[in-house]
Design brief:
With about 210 residues, this protein is α/β, with parallel strands linked by helices. The protein has eight helices and eight strands, in the order E-H-E-H-H-H-E-H-E-H-E-E-E-H-E-H. The protein has one domain (about 1-115, about 165-214): P-loop containing nucleotide triphosphate hydrolases (Rossmann fold), CATH 3.40.50.
Length: about 210
């Protein structure tokens, strides 16, 4: 099954995608992870994307599409996948349709996680990550045992440059302008299901499974 998890930044797409990976045995494809890997490795695409991400803006379509196209061609995607954070614009959705049609595939379901803006800000601003192993924490929901120190490897925790409140608000504004219309695009194909993105991870996951099986 080819799935898209859709919603604003910080809606919980990545967390729920990981649970789906364990449940369904298909890979999660996250543009955020792909972009961060390119930035960390200093690739040409990563350097271009860095400028936009530091300002809290969406990375241009051509950069994202090039990475997604390459990822979908890998062997672990042949029985299905979970797209997390892509497509973010209607033009990206159209490009994805073109890629899939050329391979005889399509998107089976688009699940939209609905989360209010203020809740999104709280989730993102409180995020921290280990600079050594990449382990994720949150100042409210998943605090490390020692402040600023990774439980796993002892590395220092940091806040990503685009996780400040001002930049989160910019990203939400951009989401409303450019990304929300993607739901309408897939709605015309009859594959969209909306679920409440508030509650415990288990509660949200139950709604997600029900939406997929609908």
């Amino acid at each position: 099954m080819n799935l898209i998890l859709f919603g604003p930044p910080g809606a919980g797409k990545g967390t729920q995608a990981q649970r789906l990976v364990a449940e369904r045995g298909i890979p999660q494809i996250s543009t955020g992870d792909i972009l961060r890997a390119n930035r960390r490795e200093g690739t040409a695409l990563g350097k271009k994307a860095q400028v936009f991400m530091d300002e809290g803006l969406l990375v241009p379509d051509e950069l994202i599409i090039e990475m997604i196209d390459a990822r979908l061609s890998e062997s672990d995607c042949q029985t299905g996948y979970i797209l997390d954070g892509f497509p973010r614009t209607v033009s990206q959705a159209e490009a994805l349709d073109g890629i899939l049609q050329s391979r005889g595939g399509s998107i089976d379901k688009v699940v939209v996680l609905q989360v209010p803006a203020d809740a999104i800000v709280g989730r993102i601003v409180g995020r921290r990550a280990c600079q050594d192993c990449g382990a994720a924490y949150h100042l409210e929901f998943n605090t490390p045992k020692a402040s600023g120190v990774c439980d796993s490897c002892g590395g220092s925790l940091y806040q990503r440059a685009d996780d400040t409140e001002d930049k989160v608000r910019v990203r939400l504004t951009e989401y409303d302008r450019s990304t929300a219309p993607v739901a309408a695009y897939y709605g015309e194909q009859g594959v969209v299901r909306e679920i409440d993105g508030l509650g415990s991870m288990t509660e949200i996951f139950g709604r997600l499974l029900a939406a997929i099986e609908d």
